[in-house]
Each structure stands twice: as structure tokens, then as C-alpha cells.
Amino acid sequence: MIIVGAGLGGLALAHGLRSNGIDVALYERDAHPDARPQGYRIQLDEPGLAGLEHCLPPTLFQLCLATTGTPPARVSVRDRHLRVLADKAALSGSGAGNAAGPRAFNRPTLRQVMLSGLRDHVHYGARLSAYQYEADGTVTARFADGRTASADLLVGADGVNSAVRRLLLPDAPVHDAGLRLVYGKIPFKRNSRSDIPDWVFENIFTVVTGGPGHPHLGLGPVEFSDRPDRAGLAHTPPVALSPVGDYVACMVGAPADHPSMPSFEQLRGLTHAGLRDVALRVLGADWHEDVHRLLGLWDTDSLFPLRISTAAPVPAWDSGPVTLIGDAIHAMSPVLAMGANTAIRDASELTRALSTAARTGEPLKDAVRTYESRMTDYAFSIVADSQRTGRQRVGQR
Predict the structure, then answer these.
(1) Which residues, at least 6 apart from 304, have a Cβ–Cβ distance to it below 8 Å?
(2) CATH number for the domain that contains residue 333
């Protein structure tokens, strides 16, 4: 199998297929794993944890859990004066091993764990330019640098700007959700946890909102039970993981048409300090003093901009030797923290469909059709829920 994209969904799928005896090669357009910022904290709830456990070797799944934080499983929404508007339990785990969940992961650490055991199967600097169907039912992928690869199935796991989706479903729309984020983190230094207000640690994630169509602040603590590099060394065999300390993920968002929000192209051209200045202007002086204290603790060098996208439902298409998982087919806003969860669930569902076909002799096309029918049913329902919640909380389009 060919997987285009070595993000979380693609890596989970590769592990799942390999564990079922299916050969896999991953092709990633980035030059190396750390070629661009891909975020910090992600939250995995029941769908993602169950999918991760299904796809990964048991020891790697346990290492994933050992490199997570377990904040209180509640999500809180507050107004800009910190009055609680909503407070509810986050999705809980149900059967994902001892991951009672939800869990707060450091995204780069999770990728490092998932890359272990796959490094010889990932080909970097491979930008897909085309693919073609062969007479024998296989598919050949062509990359911009002249490389080619053929397989029974090509899976697009290449994110919001998926090249595979553009080729397979050229009319499948991905819309600008009308939100811009400045994303960074507040690292813990000596005694600095006491500098952070207690309410930040009362939930797995907190949204402080100015209301629909106004700016918002998102906060998610990541406190490791053991530092990832130490947990990696304790693994058998040892897995080299970069050292990272506890932190709070902190993001400031606003509608794209907010008067203090530059265009995304301008945001991308700003220095780290310039991004911080934008965030401070966006929130303004009438937000609670705790908010401004938190922004004063931001690691300025960690900041980068994000543009939020959302996919529209896609009518059923003819199944064949090319399919899609994750943001490549169902990009969604992050307000429900379900993007990574759903991508990993996709990987699990596709693994299950393909391994069943390999065991029973079911035609590959039928297995792909089974996966696509299930995936579009659950995934676009979550996209719609995310869009509806984003409109209510933060003015998403």
C-alpha cells in the first residue's frame, strides 16, 4: 500500500496495516519530520484512543500513554470576564486499554513515538504530482522529483491541502472557516506553575470567548506523568524522544474580518514578536487581567499562525484503488478537538476493512467501499457539529 502523508493518521494506518501483514510505504512532502511547525497539544478522546490502540503495537501504545498528561476530563467555556458559560465532561474512553481518557498529548512527541519502527518506510521530500490507474487494477503514484511507486491501493493522508483529494475529487470543497489563530505555548519554568491561574488547570481545555464574531482564547495544559525522553529510554527497546517540559498550549483566535486581524498572508510574514502584538491588539484591554497575565507568559518564539478550514459533505463517489483519510477528506474546525481523533479512527476503520479483505479474499474495491461508507457517515456528522459549535462560540462561518 502507498500512503501519501506521514501525519498522525498516515502513521497510525501504516502501523495498523503492517501489524496485519500488509506492506506499506509512506511518502511525505516535507523534507524531514521537523520541517515545519505542526502544533503542540492535541487531545485524544475515545475514538482516537481506541483507534490508536487498534493500530499500534501494544508496547508503542503504552509508550504513547506514558508520554501524555491527564488533566481533569472537563471542558469549560468562559466569557472575557471569566464567568463560566458552560462546563461539561469531555468524552470519556470506553475500552481503549487502560486509557480511561481523555488524554493531552504533545503532538511532536506522539509523532516521534509513531515514527519508531517506521523510519525505513517513510520517504521524505516526495510531493505527489499525479497518479494513474493501471490495467491490472493497481495504481501508480508520480512525485515531483521523478520518483514513482505502484501498489494495490493509494491512501491520501496528506491533510487539508491534499493533493490526492484534488486529483480524486476535484469538486470536493474545503472552505475557509473565517478564523485565524496565533498558536503557541506557555512553558513551565522553575516555580512558574504558580504564576498560572488555578482555573487553567481545572479542565482539559478552556475557551474564553468574547462571543460569536469576537476574539477568543484557548488554553490546554499538558503536564506529563514522566518526561517523554525518560519514558522513551525506559521503553524496551529504547525510543529516542526529544525532551520537553510541561506547558500550557495557548492560542488567540479571531474572525478573519476582525479590524485588528491582518490577512493570513500578512500573518505568515510577521515575526514571532509581531504575532504576539497582533494577539494583544485583538483581545483588547477589557479582558480579565488573568488573560493578559497569561499572554505575558507566552513563549514568543513558539508562536505561529493558523488558518482554519472546514470541508463540505461529499456525495458518494466510485470506490477504487485510491481513497482518503483524515483532513484530506473531512477537515474540521478544532472547537470540538475531534480532528486528530477522527483521522486516527479512519486509520483504524480502514485497517479493519483491508485486513478483513486480505483474510477472506473479499475484493479490495468492496473493502474500500465499506470503509468509505462508514467514514463519510460518522465524519461529516462531526464536521457539522464542529461547525455549529464554532458558530455559537467563536463566530466560525
Answers:
(1) 37, 182, 183, 184, 275
(2) 3.50.50.60
For the chain, the domain total comes to 1
**How do residues 191-235 score in pLDDT, each as one tens digit?**
578 889 999 999 999 999 998 889 999 999 999 988 999 999 999
Mean pLDDT of 323-338: 95
| % of the chain with per-residue pLDDT over 90 | 87
The pLDDT of residue 92 is 53
CB 75 within 8 A of CB 120: no
Question: Cβ atoms within 10 A of the Cβ of 63, count?
Answer: 25
Structural domain range at position 341:
2-394
pLDDT tens for 18-30 read 999 999 999 999 9
Asked if 308 and 334 count as a contact pair (C-beta separation under 8 A), the reply is yes
Which residues sit opposite 180 in a β-bridge?
A: 254, 307
| Residue 95: pLDDT over 60 | no
Average pLDDT over residues 344-365: 97
